[in-house]
What does this fold into?
Amino acid sequence: MSVSEKQLAWIRKMEDDFNLAAEVVKSLDESLSEYEAIQRRIRRLTEYQESGQWLKDFEADERGELPSFLELRRAVLSEDGLDSLLREVADIHSRMQALVEDPALRSK
It folds into this structure.
């Protein structure tokens, strides 16, 4: 019994899908491990923003009370930087939740 060219083409296509999926899943697993490892830092940033300390630090920077940029990096004090980062975190959580609830939502 021989297989048709159509069947061979299908198997090749499935092999390509398998290899790509395996590569992406491995990459996602590694990225999720890194993301899990920084959750404490993300919580600390959220608490920093919500505590009012961020605003005090921002205002001190605006008044010129902090050392120069060369002595103290302060991207965290940019007007939109921290808020944008935490919004991205929330968006990622929503995307992951949607995938857990209905994986078909993300299929393209």
